[in-house]
């Protein structure tokens, strides 16, 4: 790696400013959408995995499996470790490898996957906020207006159509959203100087000691007679949600801008709703489809809003 690259944790505006090639919003949003579809299955699949494993075991074991695949890929391609980004990779790893999976797994014990998917609709607004705070981006007023409009639509949907009252599960989902938004911005910033797949690969590798220790400590109590469905769910969470999804997501943020591509996350709620119906038998109503159309329109219009 070139030694004249800026540190990934430097938050000064001149070093954090995205390169010129980041002005490719449509391509970035398309790649981000692939990642969102992969991420959208996370909550319903977590529900299935919880039938055979504890939340703590799922969080650690999925990270170990993904880290093994990432390490093999890095070794085969002979990629050198980017020492100048070590701290940022570790922080991103903690947020994305443990923070979001851990909090969301605990939340899925008390709330339906569809409810969780809707609550996580605030992710784009949180991501835009973190992108402005330390991602070097400066969204304009129109961008913030469309972001808030999209988040408001999702919240209105949650309040009008949720089948459970707000409770502790929503608190855990809020913590999951904060962890994800922070991790997305850090990894998106790193993806400006490293390929997206390398960012998540190194994040998994530098945090693997914690993952291994956690898996060992939760092995005896965390495995609860899993069937084939639970095993396949764990495999998806490791190889899809924890690895493949981030390849597309980081790539999209790198070329399209963190805040702008982050708006695609508004669609994740509805991907989750559809997959919850398919995998868990939950019902999709005309109201859900109406809100999905409205949110899609907000994303489409907001894609052209100014981001400095």
Task: Tell me what you see in this structure.
With 308 residues, the chain is mostly helical. 73% of the residues lie in helices and 0% in strands. The chain has 15 helices and no strands. It has helices spanning 13-16, 25-40, 42-49, 55-76, 86-107, 113-119, 123-134, 141-161, 168-190, 196-206, 208-222, 228-256, 258-262, 268-280, 286-302. The longest helix is centred in the C-terminal third of the chain and has 29 residues, at 228-256. It is globular. The two termini are 27 Å apart. The model is unreliable at 1-22 (pLDDT under 50).
Characterize this entry briefly.
With 308 residues, the protein is an all-alpha fold.
Question: What is the secondary structure topology, with strand pairs?
Answer:
Elements lengths: L12 H4 L8 H16 L1 H8 L5 H22 L9 H22 L5 H7 L3 H12 L6 H21 L6 H23 L5 H11 L1 H15 L5 H29 L1 H5 L5 H13 L5 H17 L6
Helix pairs in contact: 2-12, 2-14, 3-6, 3-12, 3-14, 4-5, 4-10, 4-11, 4-12, 5-9, 5-10, 6-14, 7-8, 7-9, 8-15, 9-12, 10-12
Which percent bin holds the helix content? over 70%
Structural class: mainly alpha
Strand content is: under 5%
The secondary-structure element order is: HHHHHHHHHHHHHHH
Radius of gyration, CA atoms, in whole angstroms: 18 Å
Question: Overall 3D geometry?
Answer: globular
Rounded mean pLDDT score = 81
Distance between the termini: 27 Å
User: What is the number of E strands?
Assistant: 0
What summary fits the major beta sheet?
none
Number of H- or I-type helical stretches:
15
In the predicted model, the low-confidence regions spanning at least 5 consecutive residues are 1-22
């Amino acid at each position: 790696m070139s030694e004249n690259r800026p540190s990934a944790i430097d938050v000064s505006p001149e070093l954090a400013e995205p390169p010129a090639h980041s002005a490719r919003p449509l391509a970035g949003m398309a790649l981000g959408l692939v990642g969102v579809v992969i991420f959208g299955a996370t909550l319903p699949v977590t529900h299935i995995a919880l039938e055979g494993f504890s939340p703590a075991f799922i969080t650690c074991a999925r990270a170990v499996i993904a880290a093994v695949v990432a390490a093999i890929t890095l070794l085969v391609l002979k990629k050198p470790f980017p020492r100048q980004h070590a701290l940022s990779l570790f922080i991103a790893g903690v947020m994305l490898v443990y923070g979001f999976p851990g909090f969301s797994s605990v939340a899925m014990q008390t709330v339906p996957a569809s409810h969780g998917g809707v609550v996580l609709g605030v992710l784009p607004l949180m991501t835009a906020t973190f992108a402005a705070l330390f991602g070097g981006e400066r969204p304009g007023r129109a961008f913030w207006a469309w972001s808030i409009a999209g988040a408001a639509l999702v919240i209105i949907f949650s309040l009008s159509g949720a089948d459970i009252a707000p409770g502790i599960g929503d608190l855990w989902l809020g913590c999951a959203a904060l962890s994800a938004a922070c991790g997305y911005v850090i990894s998106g910033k790193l993806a400006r100087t490293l390929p997206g797949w390398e960012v998540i690969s190194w994040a998994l590798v530098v945090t693997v000691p914690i993952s291994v220790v956690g898996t060992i400590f939760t092995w005896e109590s965390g495995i609860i007679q899993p069937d084939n469905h639970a095993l396949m769910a764990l495999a998806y969470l490791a190889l899809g949600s924890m690895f493949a999804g981030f390849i597309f997501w980081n790539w999209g943020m790198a070329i399209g801008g963190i805040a702008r591509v982050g708006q695609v996350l508004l669609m994740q709620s509805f991907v989750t709703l559809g997959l919850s119906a398919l995998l868990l038998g939950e019902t999709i109503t005309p109201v859900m489809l109406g809100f999905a159309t409205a949110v899609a329109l907000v994303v489409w219009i907001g894609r052209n809003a100014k981001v400095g």
